[in-house]
Amino acid sequence: MTDTLSTDALTPPKYDKLRRAFFRFRQSKLSLLGGVLVALVLFFTAFGTVLAPYPEHIAGGVDTANRFIAPTWAHPFGTNELGQDVLSLVMAGTTVSVLAGFGVVMIGSIIGTIVGAVAGFAGGWVDEVLMRLTDLTLTIPGLILAMAIAAALGPGFGNMVIAISLSWWPGYARLVRGEVLAAREEVYVTAARAIGATPQRILFRHILPNTVSPIIVKMSLDMGFAILTVAGLGFIGIGVRPPTPEWGTLLSISRSYMPDYWWTAMAPGMAMFVAVFGFNLLGDGLRDVLDPKARR
Amino acid sequence: MLQFILRRLLMLIPVIIGLTIIMFAIARLLPGDPVGLAAGPNATQAEIAALAAEYGLDQPIWVQYWHYVTGLLHGDLGTSLLTRRPVATDIAAYLPATLELVLAAMAIAIVIGIPLGLVTAVWRNKWPDYLSQIAAIGAISMPRFFLGLLLQLCFAMWLMWLPLGGRLPIIVIPPPTITGFLTIDSLLAGEWSTFTLALRHLALPAIAMSLSPLATIMRMMRSSTIEVMQQDYVMTARALGLAPRLIITKYVARNAVSATLTVIGLYFGWLLGGTVLVETVFDWPGLGLYATKAIVSQDMMPVIGVALVIGLMFVIANLIIDVLYGIINPKVRYS
Q1: Which of A179, B80, B219, B228 falls 20 to 30 Å from B107 in CA-CA distance?
Q2: ipTM
């Protein structure tokens, strides 16, 4: 009894807020579902290659005696044109898709945050130049820009991530600039300035930490679309090349064998859908928790 | 109003300059050997050099850029290394197909999404609302190209109700080009059978494109309807004893739509650049497919042209939305 009392009294308000946020998150069944799906996706990202029933197929091994087997217990999603187990390929493909999506969102948010923070904090002509550049990049269709950069850089995982990231940052720049502009007028910034903090210190120690939650919300909402964009590039044939298993590439190959061998398309397509669905649900839930303004 | 439109149109000039500079930088500064690719694997060094000289690709980048911008003033978007035709001619041929697809998708999304958003807002927190909220997130999460493949598999390959792809069967002579939209052109020419054929070809790609804007418009409409329903004037109308149906249709819907309009404008531009995958699936001869083919062979002039055209249409679409916004909501009318 006394124990609980004392810990309650000692819990700093920060953790209290966290607990309340977690409570609100648990209230929404959809966010929980999203959390479970994302956990599942992350699990396969880490262990998909290890747990796959036919690891030799992931490395590019073929089994031509067993081409196009319809779904059975041995091959729940059938086999493809090379006799490879579709389930194994899709499980391994999780790693590529999720890591690429994560890379895109990370790089995009870092570039965007720097551009937006500098623009909002500096103001004047710096703001004007940076925001016009942001608007311009927004008017260029993202997928075409990413495709053009990826094609010029050549195939490969890293090149693909860089290409998509370069079309991904403007949203973050606008978001962060708005947040910084609002925070700049807050009393704590005036106070920090009054005690002689340098502009860099004010920006990085006082303003930016207060803009973190909308950035995290946007990142979680963007994860799904980043995965879709990665798969889209794979589908067109730019990006990661076979035999590295990638969902979009797998789907694109299976197109040639429709309608007779339709099952080769189901597993990669459904995997994409489930992953994106999970991240979108989770992002929606996080937004409700972290961004009270948007709550309805 | 006119002044406002003119001012916004003038702002297109810096947009054009900026877009061309960015695209030029990407096309020329990144590694890659477009001329070598276009000349073919057996071309000698001299042949490649001759090809580069023919297209002016051997000159310094600022000279090339200057030629490009001065050409733009005459409506010249450069020449494609791949098709060896002027890019402007190619784009004029492919743009209507993409526009027709995007407009059809937006029409489906608006016609279904707005009433659905209104209805779910009225039924807020009841099970049809929950169900449609889940369905909306599902629809946004569905990869458009996978949806396209599923539709193709179901309706074109198994049921054989609708064609597999393309805009018209090869054996059908297209109607005389007036708008470039096969559906409208065939109607104008009075060719009913061609019209139904064009519509049947349009159906699956348009549905595949429309699902995610439909869900977004629905969600936007729902939340803005909920917001409007909490306004004082709605309370007043209710207190005065107006029929709920009348309040919704006459007072709430109109105000809620104006907030949704912005999303529609953004989505229009976004769809224009996002047709690439659906056009690939359905072999739809539009800008996306054209750009993809050009990108794969690193033929940059068409890519710059397509990005420029889509970017401009994006800006113009937002201008139109701003004007519409003022018409629907007099409070924000511009001076």
Answers
A1: B228
A2: 0.82
Q: Which residue pairs, CB below 8 angstroms and at least 24 apart, start in A136-139?
A: A136/B15, A136/B18, A136/B19, A136/B22, A137/A167, A137/A169, A137/A170, A137/B22, A138/A170, A138/A171, A139/B15, A139/B19, A139/B269, A139/B311, A139/B314, A139/B315
Give B176→chain A minimum CA distance, Å: 31
Q: What is the pLDDT at residue B333?
A: 58
Give the 3-state secondary structure of residue B79. strand
CB–CB contact B30 A231 (8 Å): no
Instruction: Please give the Cα distance from A120 to A210 (Å, whole number).
Output: 14
Provide the 10 A C-beta neighbour count for residue A237: 16
* B interface test, pick of A139, A227, A230, A258 with most B CB neighbours within 10 Å: A139
| pTM score | 0.84
CB-based contact, A137 to chain B, within 8 Å:
yes
- pLDDT < 70 positions in chain A: 1-15, 17, 69, 83, 291-296
Tell me which of 3.30.2000.10, 1.10.3720.10, 3.40.190.170, 2.102.10.10 is the CATH number of domain B89-334.
1.10.3720.10
* CB-closest option in B30, B226, B307 to A140: B307
Query: What integer pLDDT is reported at residue A13 of this predicted model?
Result: 60
Residues of chain B with pLDDT under 50: 335
Domain with CATH 1.10.3720.10 in chain B: 89-334
Residue B32: predicted pLDDT:
64
Q: Calculate ∠ Cα A37-A38-A41, nearest 5°.
A: 90
pLDDT attached to residue A262: 81
Q: A289: closest CA among A54, A15, A22, A5?
A: A22
